[in-house]
Design goal:
The radius of gyration is 13 Å and the shape is globular. Helix content is 40%, strand content 27%. It contains three helices and six strands; from the N terminus they run E-E-E-E-H-E-H-H-E. 20% of the residues are buried. The longest helix is centred in the last third of the chain and has 18 residues. A three-stranded antiparallel β-sheet has the order 5-1-6. The protein has a three-stranded antiparallel β-sheet with strand order 2-3-4, covered by helices on one side. With 94 residues, the chain is of the alpha+beta class.
Length: 94
């Protein structure tokens, strides 16, 4: 079971500079001095997090757009969100 709760509200940081590339996004976290590259699914999650959303909202959005097993989608999405939280580019909202 992921540490992230499905109903936690999340949002990406506004100060992260991102640019689309052929297979996802490349991003700069100037505060941390880090460059990141996201694959297409992580890039789609990033787009969804422009507005506050729960992990559950993101899972539903991904399931409606991709042919993916529901349980696997929850595990993979929560894993990606946990990585984004650990990198500090996504924040939990109260």
């Amino acid at each position: 079971m992921p540490d992230l709760l499905l109903d936690e509200r999340l949002r990406r940081r506004d100060d992260i500079i991102s640019a689309p590339i052929d297979d996802g996004y490349v991003m700069l976290d100037a505060d941390a001095g880090k460059y990141l590259q996201f694959n297409p699914v992580a890039a789609h999650i990033w787009d969804l997090l422009e507005q506050p959303r729960t992990a559950r909202d993101i899972v539903f959005a991904l399931q409606s757009q991709f042919d993916v097993d529901a349980e696997q989608c929850v595990v993979d999405t929560c894993g990606t969100l946990e990585q984004l939280l650990a990198l500090g580019v996504v924040r939990r909202l109260e």
